[in-house]
Specification:
Blueprint (H helix, E strand, L loop, with lengths): L2 E5 L7 E2 L15 E7 L2 E7 H12 L3 E5 L5 H4 L11 E4 L4 E4 L2 E2 L1 H14 L3 H11 L5 E7 L3 E6 L6 H12 L3 E6 L2 E6 L4 H12 L3 E5 L6 H6 L2 E4 L4 H4 L7 E3 L5 H22 L1
Parallel strand pairs: 1-5, 1-13, 13-14, 14-15
Antiparallel strand pairs: 2-4, 3-4, 6-7, 7-8, 9-10, 10-12, 11-12
């Protein structure tokens, strides 16, 4: 029995300093392991306990751990996870499938063909973002992997009415909008993590899929998996989003990553015993 574990990264398994959520007294705060450095500065962390759990999980020959992220390939490759290297990784919200770190060209061609059939062009959406965003709160505008666009903003200054209007405009053109921290993503609706997860499951012969994620862009991944977990923070928690196969954790911050890895390890072990 092969178990595929597809997990979102930022604010699910790894956490920036701003997202750590260390609300406990300093003397009992968890020890942290830096897993990402950017421009010579530490950027992302997990607890040392979580690092041990991930090492244990990836050492299991019946488990295929698949990092699953909206990050670009370049952004993903800054991360140095403990444990056995992941043979597959899903980047750009499903637009890039990495096999031993190398983009799969056939998968990228399939994705491009579907987006061309079903969605408004990326350039149209990108130009709309630039035309409607207010310079008072816009900090950066980016296109990722020639697949989707996002803005870096001063979140407190962005009007809710603008986000709502953008969501309605994008929806009519086959795109979705997701607000994650200081980033506003516009992503083609067919560009999903779940489609890439199913492809990895097909290639590996996985009989069971487990997943975790915190944002609206992770909802399709959680629904497609046999079992899923979401932390007590993020877009899904804020929306009180639930599903029959998804466990809604109450733990928030970096400790939620630890709890998710415990759940993965526990469930993979249980399935392994059933298949033995």
């Amino acid at each position: 029995m092969t178990v595929l574990v597809a997990s979102d990264l930022d604010r699910t398994l790894i956490y920036s300093t701003a997202a750590l959520g260390l609300t406990m007294p300093d003397p009992v705060a968890p020890r942290l392991l830096c897993v990402e450095v950017h421009e010579s500065k530490p950027l992302s962390y997990m607890t040392e306990t979580a690092a041990g759990l991930l090492t244990e999980l990836t050492a299991d020959p019946t488990v295929v751990f698949v990092p699953t992220t909206t990050r670009t390939r370049k952004q993903y490759q800054r991360i140095r996870f403990p444990g056995r290297p992941a043979p597959y990784a899903i980047c750009a919200n499903g637009g890039q499938l990495l096999v031993d770190g190398v983009p799969d060209r056939d998968w990228r061609r399939q994705v491009a063909a579907r987006l061309a059939r079903e969605c408004a062009p990326l350039e149209e959406v990108h130009q709309h973002l630039l035309a409607t965003a207010d310079p008072a709160w816009l900090r950066k505008a980016r296109v990722a992997e020639d697949l989707f666009a996002y803005l870096v903003v001063e979140r407190a200054l962005v009007p809710d009415e603008w986000v709502k209007a953008l969501s309605e405009w994008a929806d009519a053109r086959g795109w979705s909008v997701s607000l994650q921290g200081r980033k506003i993503y516009a992503v083609p609706r067919p560009l999903t993590k779940s489609a890439a997860m199913h492809e990895v499951a097909r290639r590996t012969g996985a009989t069971t899929t487990l997943a975790a994620g915190d944002s609206l862009l992770d909802a399709d991944l959680l629904l497609a998996a046999d079992a899923g977990w979401r932390p007590g923070h993020g877009e899904l928690a804020d929306a009180a989003w639930i599903a029959p196969s998804v466990t809604a954790l109450t733990t928030a911050g970096v400790l939620a990553g630890e709890e998710i890895l415990r759940a993965f390890t526990r469930e993979a072990g249980r399935l392994g015993r059933l298949g033995a």
